[in-house]
Design brief:
- The protein has helices spanning about 1-15, 30-65, 80-110, 145-155, 240-265, 270-280, 285, 305-310, 310-320, 335-350, and strands at about 115-125, 125-130, 135-140, 165-170, 175-180, 185-190, 195-200, 205-210, 215-220, 235-240.
- It is an alpha+beta fold and about 350 residues long.
- The structure holds dinuclear copper ion.
Amino acid sequence: HPRVWMGLLLWLALGSAHAQWTVNMTPGVTDVSRSVFDLHMTIFWICVVIGVIVFGAMFWSMIMHRRSTGQKPAHFHESTTVEILWTVVPLAILVVMAIPATKTLIEIYDTSESELDIQVTGYQWKWHYKYLGQDVEFFSNLTTPRSQINNREAKGEHYLLEVDEPLVVPVGTKVRFLITAADVIHSWWVPALAVKKDAIPGFINESWTRIEEPGIYRGQCTELCGKDHGFMPVVVEAKSKEDFDAWLAERKEAAAAERELTSKEWTMEELMTRGEKAYVTACAACHQPGGEGLPPMFPALKGSAIAKGDAEAHIDIVYNGKPGTSMAAFGKQLSPVDLAAIITYERNAWGNNVGDMVTPKD
Ligand code: CUA
């Protein structure tokens, strides 16, 4: 019976509000996301009332006036009263919904007077965060091991995808997000904050939030962006203002230390040691630890023409990637020191070009 189905749907919607899972929207934790949730519930209940009245009238007519009762159908032309009613009543309902909806939309789009600006860039498959004017930027890499994901999936368990570096923001602060992408279209989504914006290469979308309570807020890339789309979590950590300031100062110090490393005089030995480590972390998954490749997408490095010959072309490929292959641009993903160390290592490790040193200054 349709009413049984409708009852079941209502029970699901209401019941889930108290369960760990939900078929409803996530209730918000900010002024804006609470407005969005309230708006959603208001419109939901208006629709329920309309649905009950419309379907009620329909089923009542169908059942009460079915053929076996022998009643004749009414037969009349136009009714001004009915026509006015069915124009004015829906119009009034739409206006009632449009007023709070417009108010909320204006609030969502007002990114002015932000106190902290963060550029969010989508990569296949991780997020990059840059604190504008603060000299702090980093990648947020997935750290949940694949084996763990597969094991838990096989058992039907729920699990959280963890990252090495969450996006850290202070509470009670208007934070503006400038959202873009470096390769394909992604989408940055944190349901509890009601922030969901497409991250489009060459284009900047804006959004903002003001979180009140310290805590971890989780989201996910929500635009199909390739094979690891499902493994591109968003983790936002809201800290108290003092904790945030301490964190920011620490990150700035680390950035300054990194710059110092860039300008220091490196020896061949130091670069080779660092280069081997960085190579194993960044390159060896595709080019193999011994420099063998996986052709055609990842050519061998050992004995390759590029490693033997043109140092500039070699740097260019590592820095900017190589179109037509799966070689990504590592210029933004690795520090200048690690880049220089990797190139030095690759040029020396397999006896291609012994003694050829590339320093961070190059
Ligand atoms: Cu990035 Cu989906």
